[in-house]
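Researcher: I'm comparing several assemblies side by side, and this is the next one on my list. It has 1127 residues spread over two chains. Same procedure as the others: predict the full complex and return the structure.
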Amino acid sequence: MEKEELKKQIKNELKEKDMSMQKLLEIKAAYLGKKGLIPSLMGEMKNLSQEEKPAYGEKVNALKNLAADLFDEKKKEIEEKEIGQKLESEKVDITLPGKEFNTGSIHVLNEVIEEVEDLFIGLGFEVKDGPEIESDRFNFELLNIPKDHPARAMQDTFYINAERLLRTQTSGAQAHTMIEYGGKKDVRIICPGKVYRRDDDDATHSHQFTQIEGLVVNKDVTMADLKGTLLTLARKMFGEDREIRLRPSYFPFTEPSIEVDVSCFKCHGKGCSLCKNTGWIEILGAGMVNNNVLDMCGYDSKVYQGYAFGMGVERIAMLKYGIDDIRLFYMNDKRFIEQFK
Amino acid sequence: MLIPLKLLKEYVDINVDDKEFVRQFSLKSAEVDSFAPFVSVKGLTIGKILKVKEHPDSNHLHITTVDTGDTVQDIVCGAPNVMEGKKVIVAKEGVSLPGGVMKKALIRGVESCGMNCSLEELGIDAKFQGYEGIYYLDDDAPIGIDPIAYLHLDDMILEIELTPNRSDLLSIIGVAHDTAAMLNTSFHLDEIKYNEKEEEADISVSTETENCRAYYSKVIKNVKIKESPSWLKGALIKMNVRPINNVVDVTNYVLMITGQPLHAFNYNAIKTKKIVVKMAEDKEKFYTLDNKERILSKDDIVITDGITPLCLGGVMGGIESEVENDTTSIFLESANFNPKNIQRTSKRLDLVSESSTRFEKGIDPLMSKYALDLAAYLLEKLASGEILKGGSCFNNLPKEDKKIEISLEKIEKVLARHYSSEEIDKVFSGLSFDFSYKDGVYQVSIPPRRSDIETYQDLIEEIVRINGYEKIASSIPASYSAGKHNDYQKFIRKLRHLLSFSLNEVITYSLVNGKEVSYFDNKEMEKVKISNPLSDERTYMRHSLLPSLLNTLKYNVYHKIEDNFIFEIGRNYTLDKEETLVSGALSGLISSTLWSGKKEEADFFYVKGLLENVFTKLSIKNYCFIYPASPLKGLHPGVSAVLLSGREPIGFIGLIHPETQKEFDVPKTFVFEINAEKLYNASHPLKTVKEISKYPSIKRDLALVVPSSLTAESLMGKIKKYGKRSLSDISIFDLYTGEKLEKDKKQLALTLTFSDMKKTLEAVEVDSYIAEILAGLLNEGITLRE
């Protein structure tokens, strides 16, 4: 049998398109199986002379290789087809919704606190904490607000008894830290925390809210340092192209005292409803630490000076995310809090 | 504080446009709340009502024929007080009023060409009109001109918000001083001249208390009490003060201009011819001007005629000595009282007046005399008063000004800017502070109107604000140490972030009601109660966060949000300790793929597993959950557990009790509450790595039949006891209870893992370990499943 003839014959037998693997194996057995064509051709070799044998053997071997190649080729074709069919049958509608898990979120006030903490840690600050049930001494007196001081009227206070109260400002943490440091170590801290004022809750007032206090005390910190720090803060919270401006204000524990405005991030200074057409938005209060506070807390005001600032976290979050009602932070409506994922 | 710009300009030159003035004022002086015309309506006209006719189709409308100079038009008018011959404010077609733009209109068939206005319709408070209907101008008001200018109300009003230290800005003169300094223009105060009669003032004044520091007086006879001229009424209205009569208006006007409260007594009521200032008797009764009986105390200053009180000093006059329409002679007082007394009296009697507000913040003592003279001058002019010569007075205030020293060097040290002495001079002279300068040091004399300036720091503030904060540079303070969170702060943040992967963080109020405060408190901690709460709902500082979390759930469920998984990190409170808690409340479906029909609801093991996973990430070691020794408050006794760290209970988890569920009106909810500080103490982050075996481990599964009461944890404990060192891990993969087992038995299937550091374990070796374990367990009545 000639090679061409065999090739033609096998190809003809394998021409069926959707041949199953089973059928292929059956056809393969008819050629290459023990009783198949090729072994039977090989069997005829014993009838040949010694001289003819090598050439015949070589020829049959070539036929065997040819047949094997043809069957392998078909096998591969069938396999590929089968995999294709399997994959096709496994196809899913990838547009169906995925499996839902409860994915949680961080409260926006804590998100703002963390952002501010990270900024100040980068500037070499430590984070400090203080009690929320505070003494009159730490909440007021050490902050230069003696009894009968008009500033007490600015902050309506929840009292527990004559001496204990709910802190109205995180500034008490200033006094705690300065006294802890014993009037010697440089101070560079921020203190985030809850504060309380005796205000009825409405869209702009909350009897509980959150402040972040900052304090730096050393021998040469200046008002320019304060301005630079606040500029960095404003840019971190409201965008790199922000500017700030300082206006005179009054806090008993700082002198000079300032209010800090940031250039409006909505209208970029052109004037809009957010900035009440001024181009500026008030974000926090600050100042140079009043000498009375330094002296009362054990730092000699002839040697040391300091700056302090305090901001309302709710105010920052309200400005940043366009929130118009402070009660939303404490209502914890899932539809509100889930937006901060 | 309302500042009419025209009034301010009488005392200071303003050399910039309005917008720039307001900008500078807010940057250098005080916060500006608003800056707007007093009346924003433009194009109004004075008209005369020539004729009034009944409207043919209405029983309350009238048709007025109004002459506005250039035209005579009909205006349909609904005011009840409409009258022929009166001068009125007319808004013609096209005029824009607060209520809308004026248009020609048919009103019940009659064409109306505009509106006769009330003051309220122009946006002015109705109290300044005082009667219903349209506003009537004086009969001699000229037709055709702008009524707002005629009423002296055409002005811009600067509304400023004052900080408690700047009481000097509670007067036009005080604001003028600051304005002069910020604009570098001149402040002016005219000298006052009036005629004095030969007759001498015959009322002597004295004080029995140090709380009255100065007292000036004048006697003015033959005053004619009448309405004030429109310039005076206009000035008062712009400052939101209601005009009464010329005498009262003059005292109010002088108060607004100078900041010095005055009081006018009916001269004839001072029968003893003397004024004695003293402290009131305790429980003494006194009728104030508003005809109310006041019970006085020893803290109140009273102005008496030596015997009976005539006036509650600095707060309010008395009814007996009130100036009335038939009063002919008045005694005028300009005094200086101790702010503390005025503050206490005003607060105790809940009586706040323009006068008390200024006295309690401290007034300018140098103004007392000037204010009295200004009032006398105005009463001579406006009430034809005859001013008697002299006037008894005393002044016990310190005569010397306070002096403060400050060096250029100190200014530079604080502000990090070099100021030239010209710049500093300009600030001090602008503020009318006397000063001298020598060798880099200023000595500044502080006028008493600026009682807020006490130290060099206060002077630095004056310099930096008047010179401009924008001139200060920006820098970052040099730091020699790295900032950081301490380990506990890092732990709390990590805890928050881990929980927030599955749960929504909330923040709730610390103040709760009397029932909630200790609802889940098993330790019966001492309660902290607010002595002046706003409501019963917010009276106690909480001991647990869970009531607030359940209320949050209730709120959300009410809003049809069913699946709620929340946590909070917050404090509990006793008087001397605040502990941080981490608490959670979980209710509803943990996960769902609705189209596949697969849903998983939160249960005890979800909460437990969630916490265990978080604990693993936080390196919490040596903890376990145990059955509570006695039921936990608010929790299901069979589905709750105490979390132990070592042997110390540090928290709990569980299903809320059905009663709790009902009380809080929430669905089936699982909760946890753990002391975060104690959890932190149980955290042992990796210090040194443990060696791992190079050889493969061998796993064997066992199914054990155990008494139902035996917990999974104690079974694992027993296996560990009987197991060899190479037993490296045990895990449970199946729990079976049911018919195939004896009663009181359950079957637990476990996987045991064996490994050895030094060699590959042989199967036979492991078989012998298993045999030893089973033998040990058999002695305790635990058998291998058949």
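Model: For your comparison table: Chain A touches chain B through 82 residues (CB under 8 Å).
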